[in-house]
């Protein structure tokens, strides 16, 4: 497969590289990952970092790879990271960022998570978003979306939780704490595949925060 020199112009015009997990597998979330830069599923035209209250961002305790390097490690499950530009790790970034949306649905008495009603969407805005590709089409953010969780638990007394999402190319894990106003925690990932068959990337991605009113139901 020959890639264009234009960033994020991946695979072919006929395919938006959407990978969907089998919803019948008990250990697998319903997920999809889209390599944007093509017009297709996962496009979020007209939105930007400024429209998102939920963010994944650099942790003050991190001593390893940069935030951008870790995000590109996550992307590498399906796309060559070199096709992406800069990605800022600031919690308040407005031009490039990693946005997080979703919900955790659970029983407030037992802490049992309703997996089918829990979901996750991560939208990665790099510095090429909003520019045009070689066909003069706008480059869109890269989207990872799951419509169901694979596993999860809430410890009601502590207001803490863990939540796992899976598809056939990898898993994303959230660990955090619920408060009345803001849910905070950290995100890690384990890719099962790599775009060029190298060893899959894994590790800590970053901290996150999202208004509890839009996350916990």
Description of the structure:
With 217 residues, the chain is mostly beta strands. It has one domain (21-215). It has two helices and eleven strands, in the order βββαββββββββα. It has helices at residues 67-75, 212-215; strands at residues 19-20, 31-34, 55-57, 97-103, 119-125, 142-146, 151-155, 160-167, 170-177, 182-191, 202-211. An eleven-stranded antiparallel β-sheet has the order 1-2-6-5-4-3-11-10-9-8-7. Strand 8 and strand 9 form a beta hairpin. The longest helix is centred in the N-terminal third of the chain and has 9 residues, at 67-75. The radius of gyration is 17 Å and the shape is globular.
What's this entry about, in short?
This protein is mainly β. Helix content is about 5%, strand content about 30%.
What keyword list fits this structure?
mainly beta, 217 residues, 6% helix, disordered N terminus, single chain
Radius of gyration: 17 Å
Helix-strand category: mainly beta
Number of strands: 11
Order of helices and strands: EEEHEEEEEEEEH
Uncertain regions spanning at least 5 consecutive residues: 1-30, 35-45
Quote the average pLDDT: 81
User: What spatial order of strands do you see in the largest sheet?
Assistant: 1-2-6-5-4-3-11-10-9-8-7
Distance between the termini: 45 Å
How many DSSP helices? 2
Percent of residues in beta strands?
25-35%
Helix content: under 10%
